[in-house]
Structures are given as C-alpha cells and as structure tokens.
Design goal:
Elements: H1 2-18, E1 23-26, E2 33-36, H2 39-63, H3 66-71, E3 81-85, H4 100-111, E4 117-120, E5 123-130, E6 133-140, H5 147-158, E7 165-171, E8 179-183, H6 191-200, E9 206-211, H7 221-225, H8 234-252, H9 256-264
Parallel strand pairs: 3-6, 3-7, 7-9
Antiparallel strand pairs: 1-2, 4-5, 5-6, 8-9
C-alpha cells in the first residue's frame, strides 16, 4: 500500500507542476516534496492588478494633457472635394504639355495663398478653402500611369465619393487654351485617367480637360505630349491655366449642371454684361 500511495503522490505533484508555473523538487528522496513558486509571474500580475484601476481612473485627466495628445491619433481634416492634377515628377517634365494638370493645381493653390507640399510618398497636396468647403489639391508623384494609386488612397482616407473628384488632364484633341469639363466617360487613351478608373473601379468622376494642341505627325503623340509649349503658345497656356483654376473654384460651389454649362460654353469668362 505504501508503494501505491507513493505513486499517487508522485502523480499529484506531476499534475500540479504541469498545470502551473510552480517547480517541484524532491526534499529527501522518499517521495516528499517542497514547492518553489515562480514569483516573476506573480509580481507582474500584482503590478497589473494595482495599476489597471489607477489608469482607468485617470484616463480622462490624461487625455486632457498636452503630453497625451502627442500619442493620440488625430482625425484627418474633413475634405469635401479632391482636385487632382495629372503630371510626371522631375524637372525635365515640369513644363511639358503632359504636366498641364500640375500647372493648374499649382495655380489653384497659389490663388488661395497656399503652397503645394509633400502629403505622402506618392503625392503632393494643399488644403484650400473655397466658399466654406475644403478642397484637397493633389499632384500624384507616381508618374502618369500610376496616378490612380494616390487618388484611390486619398478618396478612401477622406471618404470622398467619385462624384466629388475633379481630375485635370491634358487633351490633344483640343486646341491650346480650350477648357472643357465632363462627368464620366472613357480614358481617351490617357494613361493617367486609365489608372484612376482602374483604382477607383468607376468612370464617374469629373475630368477637366485642358487643350494642348495636336501639332504632331502620325505616331508622334508620345513625343509631343512630353514636349514643352512653344513660345507663341505661352499666352494661350497661361490663360488656359487661369481658366482651369477658376473652373474648379466655380464647380465646387455651384450646382454641377450649371457649372459645367458655364465652363464649357466659356460664358464663365465673358464680361458680366454679356453673361445674362
């Protein structure tokens, strides 16, 4: 019987050790044990036990302190519209026809005393207030054929629907100086628009198209859009940039149908006496 009792005692101690963080060691070699507690676990547990109520009690006061504000995630500013100018980064593309979208966004920001600055690794931005609405002026920096990446991320971040996105792009089917806006449609062979359509998974955003002319031979489009405007086009380009920036301002604060009609008919820029 003593042997059976000893075996039972060994099993009980083994189960206790397996089910806890205690350590059992033989005391005298005849089946008697003393138990050594692992106090590291108990110390951590007691620390949490006493600190948790204190942190809970003072949570309101902590949130009111400036130090706590350093670690608190800030809510992004409310954005009502995205105005996205398409273009390519780098000084060699700065004044090319394909970068007219960037030029318009720069002008829009400058009209409101803002400078375009880094927004993320894939875009530049400036927040502009027009008639009480916040417009995020955006220049994607991913090169033209990946412009949609920045647009989709910003639309998701700020909860801006496609119908509140204006994309400014070059249009070689229009003469230099012409500005036209429409909602929806295809990409027209424009890689920037194609990328945005793919990333947003919709065509229902506004395109503000700026004419760059079509003075190129068959097969010469790629080189043409990456060329700079000619000196004799300088005045037409400057007027178009002003019109495009003004079109965005008018669009975001007016009923869409009325705004598109005024922009596309050019009545927006006629003297008020002739604009009745």
């Amino acid at each position: 019987m003593a042997g059976v009792a000893q075996q039972v005692e060994h099993q009980i101690v083994a189960l206790a050790v397996a089910g806890s963080s205690l350590v059992a060691r033989p005391l005298d070699g005849v089946g008697q044990y003393h138990i050594l507690f692992s106090f590291r676990f108990l110390r951590v547990w007691h620390l949490c036990f006493w600190l948790a109520p204190l942190l809970l009690y003072y949570s309101t006061e902590l949130q009111a302190t400036p130090l706590f504000g350093l670690f608190k995630k800030k809510n992004p500013v409310k954005i009502d519209w995205l105005a996205v100018g398409l273009g390519n980064p780098g000084s060699k593309y700065e004044n090319t026809r394909h970068n007219i979208g960037w030029m318009v966004v720069d002008k829009l920001a400058a009209n409101h005393g803002k400078a375009i600055a880094a927004g993320s690794r894939i875009h530049l931005e400036a927040v502009i207030n027009i008639g009480g609405l916040n417009i995020l002026a955006v220049k994607p920096t991913t090169y033209m054929n990946k412009s949609g990446e920045a647009v989709a991320k910003l639309a998701k971040k700020y909860g801006v629907p496609p119908g509140k996105i204006i994309v400014i792009a070059d249009e070689y089917n229009f003469p230099t100086g012409k500005v036209h806006i429409k909602l929806g449609g295809g990409d027209g062979g424009h890689n920037g628009l194609s990328s945005i359509i793919d990333e947003l998974d919709t065509t229902e955003f506004y395109r503000l198209r700026c004419g760059i002319g079509k003075d190129f031979p068959q097969g010469g489009m790629a080189g043409y859009v990456l060329s700079e405007f000619k000196p004799e086009e300088a005045d037409g380009r400057a007027a178009m940039i002003n019109k495009a920036a003004g079109s965005i301002e008018y669009m975001v604060k007016s009923p869409p149908g009325r705004a598109m009609s005024a922009i596309n008919s050019a009545s927006l820029w006629k003297p008020k006496a002739d604009n009745d």
